[in-house]
Amino acid sequence: MVAKVHESTDQTPDPPVQTPDPSSSPDTSPSTSSIPSPCLPPIDTYFITDFLSELTIMNNDNQSLPTIIELDTTSKPAKYDGTRDGFKCLAWLKEVQRYFTMKNVPDRKRTIHAVNLLNQTSLLWWESLNIDDTCEYLTFTTLFKKAYMPDGFLEHVRGLLLNAKLTTNLAEYLTRIRLYMNILLAEDPTGRVFLESTVRVVFLQGCPDDLRQLLQTDQVSNPNNTFFDMCSKAEGFDTIYAFGPRGATKGMFAKAMNNIRSQTPTSNSAPTSAPAFDPMAM
Asked: From start to end residue, where is composition biased (Polar residues) (predicted)?
């Protein structure tokens, strides 16, 4: 028994099994650089929208559930801050109308959505009227204009239109004229014929002489053109001649004006003093 123990202890132990170190072993995995990247076609957003619109989710009873996936990039209009300003009032209503059109908001829900876009000040105004949020949207817009469009605002816009002048460039002049016209036509459509005939004369008076000559010549050739057609013609001429308050700044009209200025004789005599200002002179 003792001999067996000595015999077993005299044997040398087996060497430990060494496990390979993964950090020192050669990398046999395929290189990612050798794998070509897939060539995917561009994503058509219209296809995704159509796909999601037809997508239905089924439950265990084979009943369709409402789709919970929605692509929505439409931002809500800013809440109205309660400023009593005719231009801001109409611009906000126009922005809300565009939002309703893009979101397909039904008529019966437009009032409550519009009320949700009022801030605390304007919301207090609406709550003070004690009108249900399910009323017609036309009722809301009428009351909104009455509250936030100052009295005499349309008369003020009409005065701005009749006294408009080209002070910087033609693009800015046309923007103001069109803005005033669209406001008056939308809020007071009964006087459209008189307004269009009047603003045509006002617009020509506010233009420099060379542009007025071009537009009057075109009006003879196209007598049925509307005021907005005349504005489009003016924009076309502006791309060629770049009109400013004193007339064209480039093209043949500008050269003609420069020739006229250069041929104007200058006096070498001493300047005379300016006459005294008479406040009663008209």
From this structure: 260-272
